[in-house]
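can u pls check wat happens w/ hypoxanthine
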Amino acid sequence: MLAIIGGSGLGRLQGLEIRERKSVSTEYGEPSARLSFGRFHDLNVVFLARHGDHHSIPPHRINYRANIRALQSAGVTHIVSVAAVGGIGAHLPPATIAVPDQLIDYTHGRKSTFFEDPGTEVTHIDFTWPYSKGLIDRLGQSAELAGLKVVIGGTYGCTQGPRLETAAEILRMERDGCDMVGMTGMPEAALAREAGIEYACCAVMANWAAGKSPFEITMQEIERNLAKGLNDVALLLEKLVGLFEYP
Ligand code: HPA
């Protein structure tokens, strides 16, 4: 089953006919919100609001392990993570959608593995390509079907937040090869890989990253650009579910 994790601006998935909302508890605690099971354009999917139902959980306080474990126990095999990011590359202006194929983790202090409980064997997952190639391809196909311009590929840099970055931090990230910057990509992607779930990210440019435009970054600007980009995300996801074949 396909899961959509909704980020900032996507607290609910428009077009999802919710059939059941389930509170799930895991050995790592509670996920960000109840899991919403339902039909989205003729496919059974499950939706999870990453920042909680009231958008009140900041990126560094999200219980990523509980979120991924809850989805795994619900039978989820694929996750599309919708995430607000800042655009670093000149090809990624506000409201653009991108599907990254690489990431760099700048976060610290987050609980980032399932493989650390006493008695668990030391396990190193392969993370050379952190996102599912199959899902990236399907998102590219969906963009073509929807007639949307979506940038396929690019490097997502994940910062700790919740503050935005300094201009110097963004310049460093650019030198590192980052094309976009967000705060929730990790450890979510790594935990999905540990759980054996195919995972891809649909990133929406909410703003130019710090120092990439002469203007201060405001919440109003972020919300305006997200609203625009998320309309396209809904169209993209509608085409994506048409490429899945389970009942
Ligand atoms: N930086 C980090 N995370 C973000 C940004 C940003 O500029 N915009 C939206 N999420």
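Helices lie at 64-73, 133-146, 167-176, 188-194, 219-241.
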